[in-house]
Amino acid sequence: MARAPKQIPSRELLTETLIAGASYVGSPEHKTQRWWGGLPAAYVGPDGMATRPKKQTTTVCHLIGEADRLVATDWVREALRRQQLRYYEADQVFPKHIWYREDNGRLWFGFCINTVQGQYKGWPINEEDRRAVFG
Questions:
Q1: Which label site among 19, 25, 40, 106 has the fewest CB atoms less than 10 Å from its CB?
Q2: b/e map 36-49, b = 16+ CB within 10 Å
Q3: For residue 70, which of 110, 105, 23 has the smallest C-alpha distance?
């Protein structure tokens, strides 16, 4: 029986030079307070859940300071080094999805908003969500 073709083309490993240029830039949709990028776009509703217009819920990212941005950039780079990633057909240099587990066990999902420059936003996720995305 013939094997089905791979759905995602294999990619060359990213070089350390490329990885060193990747960064966490954040996203206002996952912030509930002022952050290095400006004003937040997620709002906490009366039920205590974060929401956005035309969205059911959103995950809040509490990384708001410059030191947080630097730590998250380190996470992005380490996830790329460890190959904790998933490319999609239209991705250019950097993969669309990455994940990173902190020393305390908390998982973070990274979404590439610029697959040429390696700019990511991210938010906390649970293990079930990680498996759904990365297998």
A1: 106
A2: eeeebebeeeeeee
A3: 23
